[in-house]
UniProtKB/TrEMBL annotation:
Organism: Rikenella microfusus
Keywords: Amino-acid biosynthesis, Branched-chain amino acid biosynthesis, Isomerase, Magnesium, Metal-binding, Oxidoreductase
Essential cofactor(s): Mg(2+)
InterPro entries for this protein: 6-PGluconate_DH-like_C_sf, 6PGD_dom2, KARI, KARI_C, KARI_N, NAD(P)-bd_dom_sf
MF terms (GO), sorted A to Z: isomerase activity; ketol-acid reductoisomerase activity; metal ion binding
Lineage: Bacteria, Pseudomonadati, Bacteroidota, Bacteroidia, Bacteroidales
Binding site for substrate: 270
Name used for this protein in its record: Ketol-acid reductoisomerase
Amino acid sequence: MAKINFGGVEESVITREEFPLSKAAEILKDETIAVIGYGVQGPGQAMNLRDNGFNVIVGQRKNSKTWDKAVADGWVPGKTLFEIEEACEKGTIIQYLLSDAGQIALWPTVKKHLTPGKALYFSHGFGITYKEKTGIVPPADVDVILVAPKGSGTSLRRMFVAGRGLNSSYAVFQDATGKAKDRVIALGIGVGSGYLFETDFKREVFSDLTGERGTLMGAIQGIFAAQYQVLREHGHTPSEAFNETIEELTQSLMPLVAENGMDWMYANCSTTAQRGALDWWKPFRDATLPVFEKLYSEVANGNEAQRSIDCNSKPDYREGLEKELKELRESEMWQAGAVVRQLRPENNK
Ligand SMILES: NC(=O)c1ccc[n+]([C@@H]2O[C@H](COP(=O)([O-])OP(=O)(O)OC[C@H]3O[C@@H](n4cnc5c(N)ncnc54)[C@H](O)[C@@H]3O)[C@@H](O)[C@H]2O)c1
Ligand SMILES: CC(C)(O)[C@@H](O)C(=O)O
Ligand SMILES: [Mg+2]
Ligand SMILES: [Mg+2]
């Protein structure tokens, strides 16, 4: 395990150099990895494991769109694709990749097949950390482990195919066999992680829920909407407002941040822009800090988990989500965005 200094704090990290795929293959050579659920993470992790040469099967509800998607992705009914219960029975490692609410509903089925020595794998600390709400309490004689890719399952797959790797965190909650750590790291490498950093189930779920509600998804849409509104109210056109709020960020500036950090992106803008950005980032930080504090406390006290369970356990939760996504899609800002995307020369041949 490499010790790496992150801005003055030393952390343990597993790299592909010290833990190559051949080592992962040796550790998992006698295992059957059952990936349960074929939504977003399921396909990414299952296909990466398969392409890396592991023995993988998929468990998914028959007569569902995602069953058909699994077939289209090359999983063969009766050979590598099964009903959820049958896959749980066959798997020695059960990768529990149903939605977090779906995991509650299917828990009695999965638990039945957690015989001694098996491993139960999550990609989120949710089910275990909020066990009073989820009822997910694994038997003592199985390993309970986590690999949480830090990004969408879609990116996990795309980056793997492109020869890159998304970073993941990993954790061991319960080591019943003495092999849990080897198993979890081997699986983390197997699903295509670029490198793995250590966490525990609680820290994973608290940081993940905060991140996706905050800068990764919730806060960013909020700040986009606020700036777009101000520009529009002051007479700017939709194309100008969209370009100045989002298109320039995703197409020009964020790739520079990803490549070499914020100061480097700033350094590649005008001194006028640098002066303004250096003056204004602190007021934005100060304005949003109380919202982030409130968000973290709602995550830590379990309210966010409860809300997610309540909403996503409804039989018509998909329809409700689709309605809210449609509202976003049909807002003037994102309608302008659709037109701007079409005008990118690469989309407009
Ligand atoms: N989406 C991501 O990219 C991502 C990233 C990191 C971690 N995670 C975690 O990975 C896990 C899986 O997330 P996801 O986004 O891939 O899930 P998802 O919402 O796409 O759902 C996965 C599957 O669960 C099935 N499902 C839902 N409820 C069910 C029920 N009651 N019975 C049977 N099947 C049911 C769906 O049909 C789908 O095939 C979660 O713990 C999530 O927090 C997801
Ligand atoms: C992709 C994310 C946002 O990182 C993940 O946490 C999720 O829940 O989908
Ligand atoms: Mg998440
Ligand atoms: Mg996440």
